[in-house]
């Protein structure tokens, strides 16, 4: 056997003559040798299915994403073995590439957020290029985004516990690099619902909108699961004639008649006004809440 050669195979994607291809590149040792390249895809967890193999003198191997042997949504590997020309029995140990997910993925692949109003950036990334015949100047794929509450334990699902900054995103075609072939971002925020409903799980789904490229028509990207951590909500009160308890527990009375600013947020456009009218008897003056307005 030849010694370990540190071929370090890496899979990238590129568009060749309007078709998406995967490229397995490796480091050529000295002196030059031949290479046996085996392409495989993950068919079941932990199990690989061979899709293509070849022997080549080149320091790379190409395989087309044809929608049959290799489809969007596949996790693909290439395994490279080096051997000397004329003596194939003298070969190096086979070296595997890392798994390459061909398609659209979200980064991070899952989120854990809290009901604190903070925005969390979610990147939508295409790892493979897409063809737009006759539209080279503005080649893009539009994704329709949706959210769904998956409930908590045995509870029935309710309204989504998360909100997105956009209902759809456009992936604009760029030259493929190590980070991918097209990317866009969307922000995710937990809905502050004032309900003590425990930690809930929601999911974000993406659906390509009628792409022209045939390869993409039967493809649905993986969902993203978002766990929303329930936080206790502050409460303030104004009741009877009226006694007021603030968010931090201070208590006082306001017997006056008029319209008052009851609450205003310092961080967002939210405030509550209250109107108090005379509701006292002959012996003592008192005011009662009779109207409320919230912005």
From TrEMBL:
GO molecular function: signaling receptor binding
Key words of the record: Disulfide bond, Signal
Domain Ig-like, first and last residues per copy: 3-94
A single GO cellular-component term on record: extracellular region
InterPro entries hit by this protein: Dev_Signal_Modulators (IPR050969), Ig-like_dom (IPR007110), Ig_VWDE (IPR057885), VWF_type-D (IPR001846)
Any Pfam family: Ig_VWDE
Residue intervals of the VWFD domain: 234-295
Amino-acid biosynthesis found in the keyword field: no
Listed name of the protein: VWDE protein
């Amino acid at each position: 056997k030849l010694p370990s050669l540190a071929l370090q195979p890496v899979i990238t994607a590129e568009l060749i003559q309007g078709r998406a291809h995967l490229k397995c590149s490796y480091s050529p040792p000295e002196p030059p040798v031949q290479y046996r390249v085996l392409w495989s895809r993950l068919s079941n967890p932990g199990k690989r299915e061979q899709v293509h193999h070849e022997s080549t003198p080149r320091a790379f191997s190409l395989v087309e994403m044809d929608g049959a042997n290799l489809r969007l949504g596949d996790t693909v590997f290439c395994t490279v073995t080096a051997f000397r020309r004329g003596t194939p029995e003298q070969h190096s140990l086979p070296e595997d590439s890392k798994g390459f997910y061909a398609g659209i993925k979200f980064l991070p692949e899952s989120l854990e957020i809290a009901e604190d109003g903070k925005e969390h950036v979610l990147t939508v990334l295409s790892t493979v290029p897409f063809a737009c015949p006759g539209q080279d100047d503005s080649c893009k794929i539009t994704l329709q985004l949706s959210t769904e509450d998956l409930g908590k334990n045995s509870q029935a699902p309710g309204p989504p516990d998360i909100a997105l900054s956009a209902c759809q995103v456009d992936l604009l075609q760029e030259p493929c690099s190590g980070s991918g072939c097209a990317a866009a971002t969307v922000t995710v925020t937990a809905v502050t619902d004032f309900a003590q409903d425990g930690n809930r799980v929601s999911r974000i789904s993406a659906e390509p909108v009628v792409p022209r490229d045939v390869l993409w028509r039967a493809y649905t990207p993986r969902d993203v699961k978002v766990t929303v951590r329930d936080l206790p909500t502050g409460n303030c009160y104004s009741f009877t004639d009226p006694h007021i308890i603030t968010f931090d527990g201070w208590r006082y009375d306001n017997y006056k008649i008029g319209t008052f600013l009851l609450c205003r947020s310092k961080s967002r456009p939210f405030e509550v006004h209250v109107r108090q009218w005379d509701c006292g008897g002959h012996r003592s003056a008192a005011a009662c809440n009779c109207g409320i307005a919230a912005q």
